Amino acid sequence: MTPPLSQADIDREIAELHQAHDGEEANQPLRDFAPYRSSVLRHPKLPLLAVKDPEAAELSGPVFGVTDVTALDNDLTKQHPGEPLGERITVQGRVLDRDGRPVRGQLVEVWQANAAGRYPHQRDDHPAPLDPNFSGVGRCLTDDEGRYSFTTIKPGPYPWRNHVNAWRPAHIHFSVFGTAFTQRLVTQMYFPGDPLFPFDPVLQSVTDERARQRLVCAYDHELSVPEFSLGYRWDIVLDGPAATWMEEGR
Amino acid sequence: MKPTPSQTIGPFYGYALPFPGGGDLATGGITVHGYVYDGAGEPVPDALLEFWQADPSGDLSGKPGTLRRDPVNGAVIGRHGLDFTGFGRVPTEADGRYGLRTLMPGNGYISVCVFARGLLHHLFTRVYFDRGAAFLDTLPPERRETLVARPEREGVYRFDIHLQGEKETVFLDFG
Ligand SMILES: [Fe+3]
User: In angstroms, what CA-CA distances link A175 with A84, A235, B84?
Assistant: First the structure.
């Protein structure tokens, strides 16, 4: 058996890959990013096939409506009889396409660990407490300006088994739909100034520092609610061509 | 504007994204099922597949109501069966298998978006039902086959996804 990798091994691999892509603009992570061990057998080795068909089904996409969310879904602190433990936060922002146009009436889904860094999932065996008052799942539809808003608690960082002493920086998982299926996005939002950033191969799989910065929300005092929560702002820009034909009337 | 980068769906989406009847778009139509495999040929038990398709007439406008909610307790109760929403979401099971019950798309293919732990940026592919489709002509024959569902019996099709390796599926880039 090969000995388990240390953080120093992972740091070296990350540095080599960043060096190899130094100066390149990269808007997306490398799918082939060996420091994230699980990526090794789970990325295609052949180039993707470019599709330039204006009739492609992927230029349209699923639609959601008032039957698909309830008014309480965007408040993760109100899903149980008691208050969850942790630092209450409000996360708000806009969903935009590459031209800066708001994505209206689309579904935004979030999931996250509790304040102690634990998910209510069978496979999460991190020995941190579950919180009976926190499930960590939310949804909402964007409004006419493309805005979404969630009230939740700040998730804790958590250990994982990528290498010895591997820790994920605190993050909220986001799933976002655009007007076109091509714009589909699943990602993770991070919190400013987290000391774990340089050690995390998932975040560092985005080799371009400017693109990594776009995964980090900003503290926004205007969004803080007096005597209640601290506010964070995070705008999301969807990649991929938008559905231009359905722009009007949405 | 510069896009927000993708990040892996990770291992813990299971209590957040899948929903009852996620793979049951319609009854009385076709069944598409298969396995997701990694580069070692092992099944992937923690992938999430999303499907988007036209209705049998080729209409791609979709309908809301895929994630319909119970207004009393907020539970996700899923589709009411009256509208064809065109959208499905199915997690693979412990053996890497998925299943989809839907209607034959009028334009000849179902779009698939693949998410998985270990996959840092989702992948798009398509399920075709007719290997004579014009789009497939642009591909070498051995690669073309990876996009064609194999009929098993009346109305039942097998479609496997290979993330890597000799049988690697053709994945699409829409730019
Ligand atoms: Fe996570």
Answer: 23, 13, 22
Distance in angstroms (rounded) separating the CA atoms of residues A188 and A155: 12
Chain A partners within 8 Å of B54 (Cβ): 57
pLDDT tens digit sequence for A20-43: 999 999 999 999 999 999 999 999
Q: Return the sign of the alpha-carbon dihedral for residues A93, A98, A100, A101.
A: negative
Confidence category of residue A1, pLDDT binned at 50, 70, 90:
low
Q: What one-character DSSP code corresponds to residue A41? A: T
Distance, CA of B37 to CA of A239 (rounded, Å): 27
- Tell me the β-bridge partners of B148: B128
pLDDT in tens, A110-131: 999 999 999 999 888 899 999 9
From the list A28, A100, A139, the residue facing B121 with the nearest CB is A28
SS3 A201: helix
Distance separating alpha carbons of residues A154 and A219, to the nearest angstrom: 12
ipTM: 0.97
* Mutation choice for B interface testing from A24, A42, A66, A189 by most B CBs within 10 A: A42
- Residue keyed to tokens 């880039």: B173
Tokens encoding B141:
């024959």
Nearest one of B163, B169, B67 to B121, comparing CA atoms: B163
State the DSSP H helix or E strand holding residue A9, giving kind and residue range, or none if neither. helix A7-20
In A, minimum Cα distance to B71 occurs at: A70
CB atoms within 10 A of CB A132: 12
**Residue A49 identity:** L
Q: What are the structure tokens assigned to B55, written together?
A: 């209705």
One-letter-per-residue 3-state SS of B7-43:
CCCCCCHHHCCCCCCCCECCCCCEEEEEEEECCCCCE
Residue B36 near residue B92 (C-beta atoms within 8 A): yes
For the question of whether the overall pTM of this predicted structure is more than 0.90, the answer is yes
Which amino acid makes up residue B65? G
